[in-house]
Amino acid sequence: MSAVQLSDFEQKFRDSSDILHDALAGSFVEASKVMSPNGLKVYLDGAGALHAMGKGEDMVISFLEETPMVVREVGESIIGEIVFSIMKMSSQTSASVLVLMIASLPNVARRMSDFDLLKGYLRLMERMIALAPRGMRPMLNNIDQLTSKLTLGGLRRWVLYGAETFKRDFKAQIAYFELSSMESIQILEQERRGTLFIDNQRKLQFYLRAFYNRDFFLRPTSGDYETKKGLRPYIEYGVMHIPDAYDDYKHASGRIVPGIDCYRAVCAHAAAHIMETRVAFKGDDLNPLQVACVSLIEDLRVELNTLKKFPGMKKTWIALHPDDEDLKELNPFIVDLVDFSRAALDQKYTAKQSFNSDFLKLFIKKMTKMPESSAMSYELGMNYYELLKTETDVKISASALVSTPIIYRDDNRYIWEYEELDWLSEGNDYVPVSQRQVRKNVNIMEMYNELDVETAGDDAQEIWTLESEYFPDELDGVSLNEVEGKEPVSEPFHYNEWDYQLQLYRPNWATLYERRLRKGDPELINKILKTHKPIANQLKNAIDRMQPQGLVKLKKQQEGSELDLDACVTALADIRSGITPSDRIYVKKVQHIRDVSVNLLMDLSESTNDMVLGSDKTILELMKEATSLLSWAIDKIGDKLTISGFASDSRHDVQYYRFKPFQYSFNDEVKGRLAGIKGGLSTRMGAAIRHAGVDLLTQSSAKRILLILTDGEPADIDVDDPQHLRMDAKKAVEELRSHGIVTFCISLDPHADEYVARIFGKNRFMVIDNIQKLPERLPQLFISLTK
Amino acid sequence: MNELDQYKIAKEPFYQPQKDEIEMYTAAYMNRMPVMLKGPTGCGKSRFVEYMAYKLDKPLITVACNEDMSASDLVGRFLLDKEGTIWKDGPLAMAARYGGICYLDEVVEARQDTTVVIHPLTDYRRTLPLDKKGELIEAHPDFQLVISYNPGYQNLMKDLKQSTKQRFCGFNFQYPDEKTEAHIISKESGVDPKIALKLVQIAQRARNLVGHGLDEGISTRLCIYAGQLIANKVNEKSACKIAMVNPITDDLDIVDTLNAAIDTFFD
Fold first, then answer.
1. Can you tell me whether residue A16 is helix, strand or coil?
2. The domain over range B2-172 is classified in CATH as 3.40.50.300
3. A638 close to B (CB below 8 A)
4. Among A84, A53, A52, A50, which Cα is nearest to A65's?
């Protein structure tokens, strides 16, 4: 059971109604599934604090009920933020508005699915309460519509526009936030998000791979806050950071470049840098104008080198160069830079400035001589700056310099500072309990004199090993091993994990150990089989029908390897008597064989120890019964079966148990192992699926099936983002499919429909809502699946 | 020999050698060694066999293998006529009896129990027992067996047995290098060599995606289709889309990427 108990928090809710108590009990179960003990504590403390504010129980109840759903989407770090926001707003608005706000969170979280973005949403709500408290209620009533159309930045601008414009006119304010005024709709349309990164990431990844034949890392940055411009793209630690949305780019002339083309131009340019820029420049002694000149030359150098391979790419780049009309109001220095850039890329374009044309000739000469040298860009960039200084007015503010009109180019921090990609500092902070120990070899005297607790568990601070058997006095001639001995652990197996945000594998991310649980009493399983005799009898017919019959001869076939004598005689007689004979005169031989291997993989996480509602058994006990019956049935049919289970304690310790290897029949050894099944820890499904797949691949069967029996979704203590392990499990299932293994999930979580279909695919899962029926349903299900 | 005359290749097929495969094949044929051709789809395996059959002036019997094929589809079977049953040789028996090159295309598609019938023909025995007819065919001195398969898309369920594999000498085929491939496309389709080169470059974009969303890249054959359409005055971009993109994938994101590649190479 988890370390945090609801009873520890009872005193915080002492003087509360029964309704609140019920909500508390119900939400606690839900919350304990998605939160770590720490998160649970923050959650309950937060609820206690909200209760103590005395703003009514409705608010506390809706906090209790909605928060777990929010955590499911964006991770538990958000809990503290939610509590903080509610407290801040509570002095400025009524409890009923707060209830509405809290109720909006799960949906908003689903749309934004990112911690920082949801935090931004909470900050926006706080600001809105201060600016336009009357608009709050009508807006929250429409929040679904708003978030489906706007990014956070867009929503923020829409809100602030309304709040500023109708500060005093309350009636208009309410109309605006109700979305019933024309102005409101107009601004909404204006802010409507353009092309979203998240919708196009896969396309961009394909695009880059198609052209460069390697992978690049892409991350969205949520630019687009106050100004609509958004952050400029940048490259850091080899990762391309790209704005989370691009609007179609409109030239003053009315020409439109679609958002996806902007994305492609950005990616192609950044990739050109990563491929071509090899040395970083030291920019400490340069003024911003010099930096801008050197950057421009380096940008052009990498682009021109790319164009040698892919001349057509310049179309996307030139399209995003501003036209003359776009440049009217810009600083002459910038205009000259753009002029030069355009002339260098576009042969059809002649530079407006004659000094640019002359310098271009020099640049092209240098480019043919040493196209690979970044140093050339530096030198030439400095020369170009000197040239510009004599030709143009170079008075320009730093901010004007930053907002360059060529939007697809990154801010070039990549070429001015460069560091090795540092993987080690990321994600290595959690050490699982099993690895925080001291291990040493000791002799018999130390063991005898100094051992304090012989029966300490796996999480003891120190582990002592004695080479010989140890017979403590109190056990009277029985060795300690026989009483307390633990089963050995395998060598580690390393598996990749899929990072859906990067769209790449994290190499060797999860470490899996094969462990064995202590055996139980095989009689327990025999007893289970006995009590379920009626079910076994029902299944018997179906099982008999499934037993393979070997070679079957099909007579009177149109095609076949041999003539069917009877049919031939009839046909000949027909021919002689002038009747058209039947053409079904062959015998076809068909192998009626069952060639199936099955791996039944059980989720043995902590939650399997929960009692099943309306029954005196835990989920685990029911799983035990179900697997016993299934193994009996499969043993009778004669298919190859292995039974395994898994649990995890962070990515460093995924535990895989093998209860029945393929080569064992359903004997006492296996029954003993099944009887010893225990539940604990978390559910890192991807690594376990991959390992189970490896196991199945050792079998040469025509059909290989992985059956997963689980009571919840993938989760682990070192992962905040609930999507991550889901996506990884989905990827693992896809990997297995590509090896010809069919994965089928049997879920005992009544709310599983939302995610199991996404992980395992349509028609590849079944949710058993009446868990008590599991022992009966599982063998039936298997039989119907493999008929 | 008359029976096989219809299988002779009348006109010289166009084949652009990539390396020394013509000499190597000729040497293998001199020893009547069974030959295995490996390579992705549409890279010229079948064309190569045709070309060699023409050069060596031997009939070529091609069998497209499939899962439902049984041994009797290769060896032969009894048919019924009004007098009773008559034996009809299958393509393999015919080639062995009268001396021809028997080409089993995509041999992994056939079930393993079917492929074993070629075993006695492909070692020193060079015989084919027709057990139903009670005859043992001694292979004609000109007989040779050639198989092709595509290591790219076969799944774990379909593979040749080691005992089958180890009866052949193997030729690895790949898509030719850029210039050669462009030459082939332009020669086959009649399209301008410059356009042919662009077609190859687009195909290479797709080949980079193999294993990352695509099972197989755009083949030379598809490039030739595109070239033929363009030679018939079809708009270049549409030709590429219908001949090179639409057939190979249903994944919209990849279709989009390949269309972007086409836009990059064609105005």
1. coil
2. yes
3. no
4. A50
How far apart are the C-alpha atoms of A626 and A620, rounded to whole Å? 10
Are the Cβ atoms of B82 and A313 closer than 8 angstroms? no
Joined tokens for residue A496? 């990749």
Classified as helix, coil or strand, A551 is: strand
Same domain, A720 and A633: yes
Q: Is residue A496 situated within a structural domain?
A: no
pLDDT(A17) > 50: yes
Q: Looking at B135-219, list the stretches that DSSP marks H as alpha helix, in order from N- to C-terminal side.
A: 162-165, 178-189, 193-208
Closest CA–CA distance from residue B54 to any residue of chain A (Å): 33
Strand bridging mode A504-515 / A654-660: parallel
Among B72, B80, B258, beta carbon nearest to A572: B80
Number of domains in chain A: 5
Which H or E run contains B124?
Answer: none
Asked if the structure places residue A169 within a domain, the reply is yes
B208 and A213 within 8 Å at the Cβ level: the answer is yes
CA distances from A408 to A269, A318, A684, A751, B30 (A): 7, 10, 40, 44, 62
A351 contacts A335 by C-beta, under 8 angstroms: no
- Hey, where are the domains in chain B? 2-172, 178-265
Looking at the structure, tell me whether residues A217 and A102 fall in a common domain.
Answer: no
CB-based burial label for B151 (10 Å; 0-12, 13-18, 19+): exposed
| Cβ within 8 Å, pair A202-B253 | yes
Same domain, residue pair A570 and A702: no
3 state SS of A486: coil
- Looking up tokens 């060529």, which residue turns up? A406
Average pLDDT over chain A reads 81
Burial of A361 (0-12, 13-18, 19+ CB in 10 A): exposed
- Is residue A262 domain-shared with residue A123, that is, in the same domain? no
Among A143-152, A581-590, B19-28, top mean pLDDT goes to B19-28
Tell whether A261 and A347 lie within a shared domain: yes
* Residues A539-543, mean pLDDT to the nearest whole number: 73
Residue A715 three-state SS: strand
pLDDT in tens, A204-256: 988 998 998 888 888 777 655 445 455 688 888 778 888 877 878 888 888 88
- In A151-223, the DSSP E strands lie at 195-196, 217-221
* Eight-state DSSP code of residue B244: I
Asked if the C-beta of B155 comes within 8 angstroms of chain A's C-beta atoms, the answer is yes
**Cα dihedral sign, A550-A556-A560-A565:** positive
Q: Which of B80, B254, B264 sits opposite A206 (nearest CB)?
A: B254
Phi/psi of residue A235, nearest 5 degrees:
-115, 130
A243 and A168 within one domain: no
List pLDDT tens digits, range B210-254.
Answer: 877 787 889 999 999 999 999 999 999 999 999 999 999 888 888
Instruction: Label residue A540 left, alpha or beta by phi (over 0 means left) and psi (-120 to 50 means alpha).
Output: alpha
pLDDT average, residue stretch B138-150: 93
B243 contact A CB<8A: no
pLDDT surpasses 50 at A330: yes
DSSP A181: S
pLDDT at A454: 62
Residues B12-68: tens digit of each pLDDT: 999 999 889 999 999 999 999 999 999 888 899 999 999 999 999 999 999 999 877
Give the up-direction half-sphere exposure of residue A528: CA atoms within 13 A in the CB hemisphere.
23
Q: In chain B, what is the straight-line distance between the N-terminal and C-terminal CA atoms, in Å?
A: 55
Q: Do the chains contact at A316 and B264, CB–CB below 8 Å? A: yes
Query: Which residue range is the domain that position A651 belongs to?
Result: 535-542+595-786
Q: Helix, strand or coil for residue B146?
A: strand
Q: Are A736 and A627 in the same domain?
A: yes
- The pLDDT value recorded for residue A418 is 42
**Residue A653 near residue A434 (C-beta atoms within 8 A):** yes
Give A353's DSSP letter.
Answer: S
